[in-house]
Amino acid sequence: MTERRGDHLWRPYTQMKLAVAPLEAVATSGSRITLADGRALIDGIASWWTAVHGYNHPHIRDAVSNQLQRMPHVMFGGLTHAPAEKLAARLAALLPGDLNHVFFTDSGSVAVEVALKMAVQLWLNRGVSGRTRVLAFRGGYHGDTMGAMSACDPDEGMHRRFGAYLPSQVFCDLPRTAAPEAALDAAMAAHRHELAAVIVEPLVQGAGGMLMHPPEVLATIARLSRRHGLPLIADEIFTGFGRTGSLFACEQAGVVPDIVCLSKALTGGTMALAATVATSEIFSQFWSDDPAHALMHGPTFMANPLACAAANASLDLFEAEPRLAQAEAIGARLDEGLAPLRKKPGIADVRVLGAIGVVQFAGTPDLAVLKQKFVERGVWVRPFGDIVYLTPALTIPEGDLDRLIAAVCDIAAAPEGR
Ligand SMILES: *Cc1c(COP(=O)(O)O)cnc(C)c1O
After folding, report:
1. Strand ranges (DSSP E) for 125-263?
2. I want to staple 253 with a disulfide (CB 3.0 to 4.6 A). Which of 143, 147, 200, 218 is the partner?
3. Known catalytic residues?
4. Hey, which family's this protein in (predicted)?
5. pLDDT tens for residues 157-206?
6. CA 266–ligand 1 middle distance (angstroms)
7. Is position 141 annotated in a ligand binding site?
8. Taking the alpha carbons of 89, 93, 94, 100 in that order, is the dihedral positive or negative?
9. Angle at the Cα of 269 (from 263 to 271), degrees rounded to 5?
10. Which helix (H) or strand (E) holds 278?
11. Using one digit for the tens of pLDDT, what is the confidence trace for 357-394?
């Protein structure tokens, strides 16, 4: 059944005329999504990588409902509140180095916009003009708003359609194995007077195709950025909060970026919240007697207390429960379980990092057919492009994880319509 013209909802990345009707979810719990028709699906992707502790975790639910009784929201201009103060201090303590200054927003894309604006404005504050572009990497994804979109992969992203509308950025290939510095070094040198910053998704480019690079490559990018005096923005919106096996992906490379973007799992998948976190050095460029040197941003729902309460509760769980060990255990099981696919015809690659398992097809499968087959197997995964991937809740029970792996193995080995 396709959606009808009279439906009121306009859905994400969806050709409304051709799309099959979405499934109706009525409840979630742990790793399960219950549908209106009574079926339960095992969620293999934790609602776009957000629900790290599983759905409806009682600790987060209680924190949000307590906050709801007291103060669901209050403006952040001229006022402050304990949930935001506490969360900012905790994030600063958890992040490496002196990433100490936290600017809250309400979505990942906006966190990236703020990071880009911060980078551009810090040059203006220094009295340097013309530094308005960023160096970004092919294969990257940074969000759907204008600045974020302009830093996404120039071919797969939305450049082809929106090119004329977007700011023009400098794109480089992201080395996948060793880290040949020359090309990157040359690009930074060639554009040195117009670049404001470098932006990268550390270790895994998520929505661009779950493309991975080793920590040494990230370390090289950080070293070159420093050498050229360019702030490094680490977009940890996908990788943050344990997904790659460490709390933040940058830690694996020993890299302290100048600016970090966080969102997705920040509230444990409960509420919309994002943060752009800067080092003391970046913050000091805005610290001035000149009001015009203030960071020029301020969303209406900035630091929403409900969302901050959810995020604080999520951090409690990271402290109290062994999430990183769970990510490692999931990774080991994904590695072992998906390995047989490596030998199957039609499979180009199988890769695992932390609690991310990716199967890449040699050709482009019929995604609609694939999605349908997964639902029939009782699992919820969202293949895109030429991949199908698993990024389950870090708390997923072993039995559920095994069912996800078995479904991916069976269906990827024989995806009709490929
Ligand atoms: C999802 C994502 C974004 C955008 O976040 P939204 O909350 O969807 O705006 C940006 N960068 C990365 C790496 C992401 O995975």
Report:
1. 133-137, 170-172, 195-200, 204-205, 211-212, 232-235, 259-262
2. 218
3. 13, 141, 235, 264
4. Belongs to the class-III pyridoxal-phosphate-dependent aminotransferase family. BioA subfamily.
5. 777 788 889 999 999 999 887 667 899 999 999 999 999 999 999 999 99
6. 12
7. yes
8. positive
9. 75
10. strand 274-279
11. 999 999 999 999 999 999 999 999 999 999 999 999 99
